[in-house]
Amino acid sequence: MKPYVYITRKLPDEVIKPLLQNFNVNMWDHDDVPVPRDILLSEAKKADALLTMLSDTIDEAILTAGKNLKVVANLAVGFDNIDVKAASREGIAVCNTPDVLTDTTADLTFGLLMATARRVVEAAEFVKEDKWKSWSPLLLAGHDIHHKTLGIVGMGKIGETVAKRATGFEMDILYHNRTRKPAAEQQLGAVYMSFEELVEKADYIVCLTPLTPETKNMFTREVFQKMKQSAIFINASRGPVVDEQALYEALVAGEIAGAGLDVFDKEPIDASHPLLKLSNVVALPHIGSASVETRTTMMGLCIDNIAAVLKGTEPKTLVNKDWMPLVRA
């Protein structure tokens, strides 16, 4: 019997063709509605492979539901939705999609910074709502980007790529990371700083750090109060690294000038969320890597990883490096 692969969102038929040639494949029949927990659990009981989304919780109960599961391929660079330790213990490979989305996510991040700084969304709505009646010197005046100071929290590959874009605007680049990045310092002129120093000195603070126990609620009210009143905060990493109530209070109090957010603590965010009521917040629906080209490439990488594991070889992008396949009875 062919190995069974379950995909938790509807993907284009042409993308999954390589899987259909060698495996039995079933897909959740929606591309915009998460697969219900009970269905995911039922499918996990018989699956040899799962192709999952970042919004799917792949915990120990899912990983141990059946005896056949060998690989979980996550359509994201992040994998905080997966219990990686449990997967390793069960001999299940966990794969992600790094590198292929770096440039696309950096483009979106810098675009979000520009849209927030120059009040692009607010200005577009101003025109559409027929509020533009005359020209005035400070009508929807925003903040310059060129020659300002950019502070990047989380200087991974995406952070470095955002920094490259900033050089075109002749920005001074500061960064904070768990480890120093000598190459970025030499090639981009980036300056390493402590987190505390960075938030005090930067005009734009861009959060690109992964979600870990150490980074959860990293941005508190106290942190926002240390920023310049003219500072703009951008988050394109994970929602839970920010205390959203603290961010809301800081914006309302005028402690920072604005925020551009592609991620939220709970996704999808409800339209009644207080942050969405503020004109100086630009909110996007977690579309950092959402170009047709990049998402298609990500899907293909997931499929390649699944095929590799089910054929008995090592996948291209293995998360749990301690993975050792179990010989199941």
UniProtKB/TrEMBL annotation:
GO CC list: cytosol
Record bears the keyword Hydrolase: no
Residue ranges of every copy of the D-isomer specific 2-hydroxyacid dehydrogenase catalytic domain listed in the record: 5-320
Keyword Transport: no
Pfam families linked to this entry: 2-Hacid_dh, 2-Hacid_dh_C
InterPro entries membership: D-isomer_2-hydroxyacid_DH, D-isomer_2_OHA_DH_cat_dom, D-isomer_DH_CS, D-isomer_DH_CS1, D-isomer_DH_NAD-bd, NAD(P)-bd_dom_sf
Molecular function as annotated in GO: glyoxylate reductase (NADPH) activity; hydroxypyruvate reductase [NAD(P)H] activity; NAD binding
Record-stated family: Belongs to the D-isomer specific 2-hydroxyacid dehydrogenase family.
Protein name, entry field: D-glycerate dehydrogenase
